Amino acid sequence: MIKKIAIVGGGTAGWLTANHLGQSLLGTDIEITLVESPTIPSIGVGEGTVPSIRNSLQKFGISETDFIRECDVTFKQSIKFVNWLDKHKHGENFYHHLFDHPHIFGEELTDQWLSSDRHQQYADNVSKQAICCEKMRAPKSISTPEFVGLNGYAYHFDAKKFASFLMNHAQKTFAIQHLYAEIIDVNCDQDGFVTHLIDNEKNELSFDFIIDCSGFSAAILGEKLNVDFIDRSNELLTDTAITLQVPTSVDDEIPPYTIATAHQAGWIWDIALTERRGVGFVYSSKHMSEEQAKKKLHHYLGNKFTHLKPRKIPIKVGRREKFWHKNCVAIGLSQGFVEPLEATAILITDFSGNLLSKRFPRNKEDIDIIATDFNKQVEYVWDSTFDFIKLHYFISDRDDSLFWVDNKQPSTLSEKLKSNVLKWQSFSPIREDFDSKFDLFDLENYLYVLFGMNYLPKTEQLSEQASLLAQQQVDLKKRRVEQLLIELPSHRGLINKIAKFGLQKL
Ligand SMILES: Cc1cc2nc3c(=O)[nH]c(=O)nc-3n(C[C@H](O)[C@H](O)[C@H](O)COP(=O)(O)OP(=O)(O)OC[C@H]3O[C@@H](n4cnc5c(N)ncnc54)[C@H](O)[C@@H]3O)c2cc1C
Questions:
Q1: pTM of the model
Q2: How many whole angstroms from 274 Cα to the centroid of ligand 1?
Q3: Is 186 touching ligand 1 by the criterion CB < 6 Å?
Q4: Are 491 and 255 in contact (CB under 8 A)?
Q5: What is the mean pLDDT of the chain?
Q6: CATH classification of 4-47+158-233+317-379 is 1.10.3720.10, yes or no?
Q7: Is there an atom of ligand 1 within 6 Å of 35 CB?
Q8: Domain parsing of the chain, residue ranges
């Protein structure tokens, strides 16, 4: 019987997994202990999310008000991509990858945009959200219940505060135990199943099941059980980040989106929290030196850069060959990492934690069949996520540096992405192009990115009936936008109100 679970690692992945398992195993006789090194710090970055995180927080029984107050949370409704197209051809340029579905008002708006002269951006044309973002509005008002939005949203938060908020919740609500110990070795039985974790004081800790959330080191699955790492840095070229925290004033406006500004060898993230910005310069070390990167970051931040301490973080791009081996499952950075664009890591962590919690094995004999499914599904998630991120670099028309040129080498694309981009040169993407429910990024995400970046199919004239429908949708959207601009408070205004009054419980 599986009765004692160890989660090794107390970063975002460890505590998210603890909440998933704690919630699903509540009331059973299974005991969960999170074991965390007192000396190895968690990575401390990862402050952008996607909307599915709301489902998990709600499932854990977390109060959205407490979460917002305690983790310096701001709302994220979009990623605003700046200068991902050639400035010489398009001037300074941007597009929004919104969290609202592009077909809220109907599919005809997309067809109408494609067959028009496209004087308006795609996101503006199909959604009510782009204008709300540009006007710095919150996605809800103080009277909208917790976890409900008038526009789609996720969050930005302080990564360290988020992990400790999840820890407190897991301990209080699900009785998860917490132990400080650095694991340096394991004992296995004759079948290769881990029986003990061994810490640096030679204590042997007995467990039936191990979840490796130890970050990039993959201390158990990678280092002790020797599951290979598949390096994909030849496909996705950004391998380094320089990060900074920039203080802001409590009166500054808060953009309700992540800003992702492309540069000659990668891109810069800019995430506004309540009293600081988290800024990260992501680049390919083969295409730019650290010195150049710091100069560019200085240029981006101006005088603010001078008094700040930049931190360099090497990025390990790739994934484990498998994620579940015998009685050990990796979740978080120990599974793999793409790069920070589109905030995919916490999404895949959350997905994996949820998947494991839905069908947690009670006996050693049950493991094989569940592990096979888990490995297949999580592998699909990783590979389709690699494709989605690669798409951003491949379809850009920038060729102002070797980085952008190298990104367009066909050898850096998977066969599936190669065939999709070829297809989408002629045909608009359709739901059926995304054939699995494990496509965490599907039609709506691809529409915003492809059309935001002017990667357009051949188009035909709209039929009379479709034109009529599109016009109705335009009118409906216009009315909804007018209403929202009255109803929605400023982003900063809502954050201040939540601090004072809280949101309504559902
Ligand atoms: C530059 C950068 C930017 C990112 N931006 C985003 C983003 O915007 N959005 C997003 O979704 N994700 C982002 N990520 C990913 C995000 O940071 C991670 O998904 C998230 O923080 C989870 O990390 P983790 O818990 O797996 O690892 P870590 O935070 O590294 O935690 C590892 C834990 O394991 C413990 N540990 C390690 N070894 C041992 C051992 N031997 N014994 C005991 N304990 C051990 C450590 O003490 C620590 O508690 C980013 C990552 C990078 C590198």
A1: 0.97
A2: 22
A3: no
A4: yes
A5: 96
A6: no
A7: yes
A8: 4-47+158-233+317-379, 102-138+386-486, 240-314
